[in-house]
Design brief:
CATH topology of chain B: ABC transporter involved in vitamin B12 uptake, BtuC
Number of strands of chain A: 9
Largest sheet of chain B: none
Shape of chain B: globular
Shape of chain A: globular
Order of helices and strands of chain B: HHHHHHHHHHHHHH
Structural class of chain B: mainly alpha
Oligomer: heterodimer
Strand content of chain B: under 5%
Number of strands of chain B: 0
Radius of gyration of chain A: 17 Å
Helix content of chain B: over 70%
CATH class of chain A: Alpha Beta
Order of helices and strands of chain A: EEEHEHEHHHEHEHEEHH
Strand order of the largest sheet of chain A: 5-6-7-3-8-9
Structural class of chain A: alpha/beta
Number of domains of chain A: 1
CATH superfamily of chain B: ABC transporter involved in vitamin B12 uptake, BtuC
CATH architecture of chain B: Orthogonal Bundle
Largest sheet of chain A: 6 strands, mixed
Distance between the termini of chain A: 36 Å
Strand content of chain A: 25-35%
């Protein structure tokens, strides 16, 4: 039995008077990639942000790497988990090399930059990169924050959105490789085919967890029909 | 990573040469006087301009970093207006006390700047930075009106406040009056330099900065506090001068890129250089009718700013 690195119980979040997350329970263990799927507005991003410690107003129990992320200093928390948002932004037009200096380890960043096919673009500014290249540049930040990945929690919000097939494949493989190295990975995605390659799938609907299990049992045709209203 | 130590040394050297030239220029002609008496006369003014410019350049860079917006500037967010209103309130309420206690004026300016910053943060909580800046513009207009109202109602404070609003206080600088604000400027500048890596990460958004290990709330708090200190100390020396905090960080970014670790020292040096240059030109070009440092700054800075803004990649 692998070590459980992320646990949530009765996790609820109210955003501007609306219940965005309603009593969600989940566990993610080391070595596991868990996909979170659901329609737009189902609460996927809110779940990920709450797990990352970004929503101190979230209620319920939450334990990440042995601590409550809502009550842990940012510096300590950064050593336990890495997070990549769905829409990365930058107020200033950094070059890739400059972006790398913001990572906890510039060497690790360079490694991921190479691995994601950005090796030749070090001197390029973010504004000179394509949307997909910018996305993987920011993903490199998250992956480099993992270090050796062992015992860390990786939280990725739609990491393959805006990526071409080749880069999506690279990122998908990197996610599974991180889990094999001992990380617990929680990934929001709309790519149901990729979700089926994960150890487990969580299905969210209107802030509630409606299914949790291996893809074969958690992502049935009936559930897909009920959740997305398509065949 | 490119090293900017050489460029920084060159900038410091140029600034030193500019300071020497500024010490030699003035209404009494070029030179330091036979016994250096002109030098001693101009020294407080030059030191005050350097210190205020340093604090303003770094204060502007910090506000732009915290607000993640290249248009942020203590002159636009109402922090200057608040500092001047603090001075106006003190002058109106306790004129004699003000002139008998050297710490009174800087303290009132700091109180005013801090109060405006607090109102700005409170009114703008949970809003976009654009809305925060718009709130700042409103605050700026309100505090300016308050200062003018006090100037109109209290004749003994009128001239000094009108001159302060016009950024024309450098000419009155003496070492006796200026040493405390100069110290405040240098202290604020040194502390603002320590914020570099937090500001660099904040550029990626509050979520990412937090996830990379930055205490975002603390960075904001320290930014507000230190910018208020920088603005208050600078305003005690110059009066209201809006363009330095906007222009110096832009020039610094154009020179060495947007990373705060590299850019902040240049923002400080460029701020000091710009303000000193503006003041020196303002009092030397037409010695009989000198132009205030603030007016000269805008005269030089505005075209440069428009040029930079037009070539900025959005």
């Amino acid at each position: 039995m692998s070590e459980v690195l992320l646990t949530a119980l009765r996790l609820s979040v109210d955003l501007a008077g609306r219940t965005a997350l309603d009593g969600v329970a989940l566990t993610v263990s080391a070595g596991e990639v868990v996909a979170v799927v659901g329609a737009n507005g189902a609460g996927k991003t809110t779940l990920l942000r709450a797990c990352a410690g970004l929503l101190p107003e979230a209620t319920g129990d939450l334990i990440l790497g042995g601590v409550d992320p809502r009550q842990t200093a940012p510096e300590k928390l950064a050593r336990l988990r890495a997070y990549a948002p769905q829409h990365p932004t930058s107020a200033w037009d950094y070059t890739l090399a400059e972006l790398g200096t913001l990572a906890s380890s510039a060497d690790e960043f360079r490694y991921w930059q190479e691995r994601f096919g950005l090796g030749e673009l070090t001197a390029r500014k973010l504004s000179e990169l394509s949307g997909g290249e910018r996305k993987v540049a920011h993903l490199s930040l998250a992956f480099s924050a993992l270090g050796d990945a062992y015992g860390k929690v990786l939280l990725l919000d739609e990491p393959t959105t805006a990526l071409d097939l080749c880069r999506a494949e690279l990122v998908g493989r990197a996610i599974h490789a991180s889990a094999q190295a001992g990380a617990a990975v929680l990934v929001c995605t709309h790519d149901l085919a990729w979700a089926r390659t994960c150890e487990r799938v969580l299905v969210l609907s209107e802030g509630r967890l409606v299914s949790d299990g291996p893809p074969s049992t958690a992502l049935t045709a009936e559930l897909v029909r009920a959740t997305w209203g398509v065949a | 990573m490119k090293c900017h130590v050489g460029t920084l040394a060159l900038a410091a050297l140029l600034l030193a040469l500019l300071a020497l030239a500024a010490l030699a220029c003035g209404s009494a002609g070029f030179g330091w006087g036979t016994n250096g008496e002109l030098l001693m006369l101009r020294l407080p003014r030059v030191l005050a301009a350097l210190a205020a410019g340093l604090a303003l350049g770094l204060g502007g860079a910090n506000q732009q970093g915290v607000f993640r917006n290249p248009l942020a500037d203590p002159g636009l967010t109402g922090v200057f207006g608040g500092a001047l209103l603090g001075i106006a309130l003190l002058l109106a309420g306790a004129t004699e006390f003000t002139w008998n206690h050297r710490w009174a004026l800087p303290t009132a300016a700091f109180g005013g700047a801090l109060a405006t910053s607090a109102v700005l943060v409170w009114l703008g909580r949970g809003r976009s930075t654009t809305k925060l800046l718009l709130t700042g513009l409103g605050l700026n207009a309100f505090t300016a009106a308050g200062t003018l109202l006090i100037a109109a109602r209290f004749p003994e404070a009128r001239d000094i406040l009108i001159n302060g609003a016009a950024g024309d206080w450098l000419g009155t600088a003496t070492l006796e009056l200026a040493w405390l604000p100069i110290l405040g400027c240098v202290l604020a500048a040194l502390l603002l330099l320590t914020q570099a890596s937090a500001l660099d990460r904040l550029a990626l958004g509050e979520d990412m900065a937090f996830c990379l290990g930055t205490d975002v709330a603390q960075t904001r708090r320290q930014g507000v506090l230190l910018t208020a200190l920088a603005a208050a100390a600078a305003i005690c020396l110059v009066g209201q001068v809006a363009f330095i905090g906007l222009l110096a960080p832009h020039l610094a970014r154009a020179l060495v890129g947007p990373r705060h670790r590299a850019m902040l020292p240049f923002a400080g040096l460029l701020g000091a250089g710009l303000l000193l240059l503006a003041d020196t030109l303002g009092r030397s070009l037409w010695p009989q009718t000198p132009i205030s440092a603030a007016a000269m700054t805008a005269l030089l800075g505005a075209p440069a700013f428009v040029w930079i803004a037009s070539r900025r990649h959005e």
